[in-house]
Amino acid sequence: MIPPNYSDICKPVNDLFSKDYPFGALKLEVKTTTANGVSFTVNGAQDIKSGAIISELKTKYADKINGLTYTESWNTANLITGQVEVANKFAKGLKIELVGSAGLNSVKRGLRTKINYQQENIFARANIDALSPAVTADVTVGREGAIVGAELAYDLNSGAVSKTNSTIGYAGPDYLITLQGNNSLNLFQLAFYQRVTKNVEAGARAVYDYKNPEGGVSAELATKYILDNDAYVKAKVDNAGRLGLSFTQLMRPGVKLSLAGLFDTARLQENTHKLGAALTFEA
């Protein structure tokens, strides 16, 4: 079995805590696919407090015969990005991505090469930016449920490692437990996820900053309850008293609505709460 990439080791926990919570914003996403396989995605979000709007248009086409995927995007910051992906062309499990970006109203430029390699029990990635001295890489090794991963960034100018993160964990049929050491083993996170029943998911995570012991341990609990085939509710709370609630409903095939609110239970009378909504169309 191929393990997840390093960023996705804690994905079940992270999704439980972050997905379907559009706090403080109104979001709209439209996805369509043409008959010849070209997909279009439009994302837009308005900050409720400031009124600022950000959006992005993305097109994607997969040439399955030659194993190529082309992606282009253009956002409201006038940043244009183009990406070419080659998968399983040179070797099984090897994917190479070339990503270029340019700002129309600025001198911002980017040119990156991403290399992914996955085989039984291993998933490795490297990210090389031609316009930056930093090189990042990560690797995940998994066997019989046990997972070990590491991530690092290397600065070519200074010849020093600028970032190191590591994760160990175990994934069972319906649960996951992980321990992460980030920022050169100065920030630790213990996380747990379980599918309690077919309708109930639960998770918890605790974070401790070794460099700031006075802050103690911050803890969060989260849960998801599936009401029926078309709706579910989510809730999360942390030890600072912040309560997040969300409701997601499939209005009809391809149309999904999420409503969410973040409430500071320690300051209920103050204007610190955040509401939000997200609407997704897919055809």
From TrEMBL:
GO molecular function: porin activity; voltage-gated monoatomic anion channel activity
UniProt-annotated location(s): Mitochondrion outer membrane
Keyword Mitochondrion on entry: yes
Family annotation (Gene3D superfamilies): Porin
Keyword Mitochondrion: yes
Keywords assigned by UniProt, alphabetized: Ion transport, Membrane, Mitochondrion, Mitochondrion outer membrane, Porin, Transmembrane, Transmembrane beta strand, Transport
Protein family (similarity comment): Belongs to the eukaryotic mitochondrial porin family.
Protein name listed in UniProt: Mitochondrial porin
Encoding gene per record: POR1
